[in-house]
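Table S2 (continued). Query chain:
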Amino acid sequence: MNFYDFHIHSQFSEGESSVEDIAKRAKLLGFKGICIVEYFENLNRMKNLRKTIFEVVEKIGINIFIGFEAKSSDELKKLVRKRREYDVLLVKGHDLNLNRKAVQTKEVDILTHPEFNRKDSGFNHVMAKLAAKNNVAIEVNFREILQSSKNTRSHIIHNITENVRLCKKFKAPLIISSGAVSHWQLKDPKILMSMGVLVGLDLNKAKKALSNTPENIIKMIKERQTEEWIRPGVKIVR
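Corresponding output:
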């Protein structure tokens, strides 16, 4: 079984480590591939990131995908229009309206930590149904738990557990990620699976959240790279 971490920030965005240091650490931990996540500024920055990633892939020998994370509805619209130009579209969870918009948008791959900085879980049964319908993966983010204080950790775990319960009930895809902003924050797949079990997944589903879900995203990446792909659910049949 191949494992992937699809939410890592490098020095290109809010991270502290180079893409190369992240790739080396991820390979050492046993990951088949990773996604380096960036905030969109302009096409030149996107091209520079792509060039860096290509060089690191050649040197280290690990699959690296380019992800862009939308922080607002306007950013999401902009990234949807440029959907062919990168691999993974993430939406930064926190705002209830943006969370809803994310699971309604078929171009979105991952809604990251919908409960982030909220008193509630930022997610409900309607969103879970939409996520299942549009194949938007809901993230369980390790860094959010890791960096929380004792006073807030139980509250965060409670909200994540509730989101996991809804995803299981309505068959929405789940993905477990480190959310790392440093190569030292990357975690062994077994540790991430253990966290999945902590928030309500059985071991098999925790493994799938690190393997099957990202592999399904990779299949969509490959499909979007073909000339036949137009948009989700629409392609040219020859």
